[in-house]
Amino acid sequence: MTNLFVLQLLNGVQLGVLLFLIAAGLTLVFGIMDVVNLAHGVLYMVGAYLIATFAALTGSFWWGLLLMFPAAIVVGLVLEVLVIRRLYARSHLDQVLATFGLVMIANEAVKIIWGVSPLSVPMPELLSGSVPLMGPLQYPVYRIAIIAAGLAVALGLYVVVNHTRIGMLLRAGATNRTMVSALGIDIGKLFAIVFTMGGVLACFAGALVAPILSVDTGMGESVLILTFVVVVIGGIGSVKGAFFGAILVAVVDTVGGVFGPIWLRSVLDPSAAGQVGRMLAPMLVYILMAVILFAKPAGLFGGRG
């Protein structure tokens, strides 16, 4: 039982760092630019397709990952200039409709370019295999690498947001973007940087997950809902909130889904416990969100008002 708990806890942390990579960009876009971007999951999908393409062309996962970054920057800039920039002054309903349409366009474009068959990315040989953790328990090296990469990005974002000038502008923009603009800061340039940085993080998450999941159309929608939950729980505009919210949501979702039926057996008969557990498992993160918002309406690290 202990081994199973540790295994699921690690799986939760691994999912959490992937959610953080997606949520960090989304919370900055929503908190600073005030744009509800339903197409953020598309960038996660595009990142997976980009690394699949570049890895196939070069025959190397590492070259594929390296080439993915400049391509992700181009994709982010193009989306910001052609679509998102035109939505800044529009209502949230217009933003939702426009970005939802962008999701449908992107999915069809992916089918036209790459086809409908799922793609796969080979596991890098350096990160293949498993390592022993405790007793007979082993854990894949690649999943540990995902956790390490996510933590490294979180540390890098912490340094950028809290100890650089661009980070100062990001924090100020999340607090009062009108005042930032009035002080002479090029708000359009700041928005472009924020959106592109968020897009690159989402693409990086898609690239990391590509070797362990099939790369197919619509893969971004499955994580987008959880990402919005992370943003709401952590607090809109807070990178620190996105990190802790992502870990919390992922651990509750992973551990609760496995151990919920087991814990319910102490008060219910096994068949009823299994049925109730299966019903409650998909609801756990939303129950968690409701409880946190009841106690802190702005989220764990959200600002007042």
Automatic annotation (TrEMBL):
It comes from the Bacteria. It is a multi-pass membrane protein. GO terms for biological process: amino acid transport. The chain crosses the membrane at residues 12-31, 38-57, 63-84, 96-121, 141-161, 190-213, 219-236, 243-264, 276-295. GO terms for molecular function: transmembrane transporter activity. GO terms for cellular component: plasma membrane. It is found in: Cell membrane. Keywords: Amino-acid transport, Cell membrane, Membrane, Transmembrane, Transmembrane helix, Transport. Pfam families: BPD_transp_2 (PF02653). Signal peptide: none annotated. Belongs to the binding-protein-dependent transport system permease family. LivHM subfamily. This is Amino acid/amide ABC transporter membrane protein 1, HAAT family. It comes from Roseivivax lentus.
